[in-house]
Amino acid sequence: MEKCVICWVYGMVQGVGFRYFTQQEAGRLGLHGYAKNLDDGSVEVVACGEDERVEKLLTWLKSGGPRSARVDKVLSEPHQPEKAWSNFSIRY
């Protein structure tokens, strides 16, 4: 079953390759969506794909993501994107 979530990742997640590593992990899981830096220092992640694979990405994010980052908290909720994503990209 297809599932989409939007989440906000807080901590030391900008300037440490967080979006790049999230893109790599999402690609490995076959997800589509994006990772984007926000002005408050957090990273927004939209991930869509098979329910189990989306949950694996959420678990990876909540467990700290890449070693270069420090994740303090992850908030997530179901999401209905306005457009369909064909891959997982880094947004600027």
- Overall SS class: alpha+beta
Biggest sheet descriptor: 5 strands, mixed
The total of beta strands comes to 5
Would you tell me the overall average pLDDT? 96
- The helix fraction, in percent, is 25-40%
Strand content: 35-45%
Give the SSE string.
EHEEHEE
Radius of gyration: 12 Å
Shape descriptor: globular
- Assembly level: single chain
Poorly predicted ranges (pLDDT <50, ≥5 residues)?
A: none
Distance from first to last alpha carbon: 30 Å
Physical arrangement of strands within the biggest beta sheet: 4-1-3-2-5
Q: What is the overall number of helices?
A: 2
Describe the structure.
With 92 residues, the chain is of the alpha+beta class. Helix content is 25%, strand content 41%. The chain is built from two helices and five strands. Strands 4-1-3-2-5 form a five-stranded mixed β-sheet, with helices on one face. A hairpin with a 5-residue loop joins strand 2 and strand 3. It starts with a strand and ends with a strand. The model has no long low-confidence stretch (mean pLDDT 96).
Mind sketching the topology for me?
Elements (H helix, E strand, L loop, with lengths): L1 E11 L5 H11 L3 E6 L5 E8 H12 L7 E9 L9 E4 L1
Parallel strand pairs: 2-5
Antiparallel strand pairs: 1-3, 1-4, 2-3
In summary, what is this structure?
The protein is of the alpha+beta class and 92 residues long. Helix content is 25%, strand content 41%. The chain starts with a strand and ends with a strand.
